Amino acid sequence: MNELHGAGVALVTPFNADGTIDFETLGKLIEFQIAEGMNYLVSLGTTGETATLTAEERKQVWAFTATTVNGRIPLVAGIGGNNTVEIVKHVQEFSTQGYCAILSVSPYYNKPTQEGIYQHYKAIAEASVLPVILYNVPGRTGSNMSAATIVRLAKDFKNVVGIKDASGNYAQFSEILRDKPENFLLISGDDPATLPMMALGAVGIISVVGNALPRKVSTLAKLCAEGDFLQARTIHSELLKITDLCFVESNPCGVKYILKQIGIGSDYVRLPLVPIGETTQKDIQDELQRIN
């Protein structure tokens, strides 16, 4: 899965004022990512507000994204949730054309045991014809997928090929890297962790801020992969504040506002999310002026 090395971006889903999906802007966003050097795209990860899309809308977004990309860079589909039977059904019904893997978030709200998490992913792995990337994000799911569970899944299922980990637990990252199968991928799920995780042995980042700043994020990952951490630290430091501002009022509200500022769509989101407030808007505007 070398195609999933480097910088990937969890695409936002642009909306029109009436709440419908803005496919024209989605097309512009995809072209922007490719032109600015992003290595691969994730369609309908959690940043894509997938929880508020209907099943038909998800199919439309996946199909549109695959058609627009047209094989130019790899594509990953986000298919996850907390109802295992339903997710397995979605995986089985998914049209894989144009996609190289699926990304599946650990079950949220239920707070399953480690055995429950294992059995959830076992069912997905057995149902999927595509490679599966696990996604551990305890801050949103309410539970952490342990290193032991991650490594167990990696060893038991050849199509479980990597994990996007946003736990912020560097001891856990080190344990995964020590015990994992050789080709299993550790991917940062948190923009500020890209440099330190890649220094440990992660292969890249699935980014949020990369929606709006793809050139900086892709360059950061490239420098880290080349071992040029001196130059990478400059970009890492430059991105810290703007990344923090993206999460002040819930993701993806902040990064959608930045996209609006650079002329790619609007900052419309679907309830229960709302656009960011004036104070955060001003802070983002000031920071954009500083880094550009």
TrEMBL record:
User: Which residues are listed under the site Part of a proton relay during catalysis?
Assistant: T46, Y109
Q: Where is this site: L-lysine inhibitor binding?
A: A51, N82, E86, Y108
**Keywords in UniProt for this one?**
Amino-acid biosynthesis, Cytoplasm, Diaminopimelate biosynthesis, Lyase, Lysine biosynthesis, Schiff base
Which Gene Ontology molecular function entries are recorded, alphabetically?
4-hydroxy-tetrahydrodipicolinate synthase activity
> Which biological pathway?
Amino-acid biosynthesis; L-lysine biosynthesis via DAP pathway; (S)-tetrahydrodipicolinate from L-aspartate: step 3/4
Q: Name one GO biological process term.
A: lysine biosynthetic process via diaminopimelate
EC top class named in words: lyase
Cellular localization per UniProt:
Cytoplasm
Q: Does the keyword Membrane apply?
A: no
Kindly state which reaction or reactions the protein catalyses: L-aspartate 4-semialdehyde + pyruvate = (2S,4S)-4-hydroxy-2,3,4,5-tetrahydrodipicolinate + H2O + H(+)
Which residues are recorded as binding pyruvate?
T47, I206
InterPro entries recorded for this chain? Aldolase_TIM, DapA, DapA-like, Schiff_base-form_aldolases_AS
Q: Which PANTHER family match?
A: 4-HYDROXY-2-OXOGLUTARATE ALDOLASE, MITOCHONDRIAL, DIHYDRODIPICOLINATE SYNTHASE
Q: How does it assemble?
A: Homotetramer; dimer of dimers.
Please give the family membership noted in the entry: Belongs to the DapA family.
Its protein name is 4-hydroxy-tetrahydrodipicolinate synthase
This protein's encoding gene: dapA
